[in-house]
Known about the structure:
Elements: H1 2-14, H2 27-33, E1 42-49, H3 51-54, H4 68-79, E2 84-89, H5 97-102, H6 104-107, E3 115-119, H7 121-124, H8 128-146, E4 149-153, H9 169-184, E5 187-189, H10 191-198, E6 208-210, E7 213-214, H11 216-227
Parallel strand pairs: 1-2, 1-3, 3-4, 4-5
Antiparallel strand pairs: 6-7
Amino acid sequence: MFSYLLLLIGFSYASAQQIANPESYLDSLKQELKVKWPKNSTKNLVFHGHSVPTGYLTNGVTDRLNAYPFLTLKLLNDNYPYSVVNIITTSIGGEQSEQGAKRFKKEVLIYKPDVLFIDYALNDRSIGLERALIAWEQMIQEALEYGTKVILLTPTPDLKEDITSDDAPLEKHSQQIRSLAKKYNLGLVDSYSYFKSLAKTQPLPAFMAQNNHINQKGHQFVANSIYEYFKY
Length: 232
């Protein structure tokens, strides 16, 4: 009951807030990425979540360099030629947000992230909205207390769900993540909305390695959406 009340309070509060503006949320960081040696400094982008940011495709095969964290690095490398950016993945295949929250301080913040990305919704279906809300809020609050910028990601598709349905479990988790981004004025990469729109004109299997893992094409879409926060 307490979790449910927390959920309602969070949604009510979120309605009065706004998602961070992609054009300005990382303004100070973007300026730092333009600085030349020897005055430049290394920046850490940390991706926390499950198998998708880790780079799992199908049958246990991984393609790390073509997963969205490293495709994001390629975009940054091409557009910020003087930058030194570390891409750090603290994601673990099969993990949900409660497990990620337990190791957050010791295994995520230890990397001193300049920007933190959280992507857990695919696996959070196993614990439900209320428990996921508590875990996400814990990680968000700890990250903000540390002083890092935070960008939340709604889930990429699962072909076993009807992505066009507003009652699909992943849609419910997406709504919760959007509300958290508004509540805390965080960045948001709304992958679910993008793929939902894409499904109106193209068959989603073309962007999937298996039912719940996107392929390189799918990862590129997510990376492109992340890069919207770094454009200048």
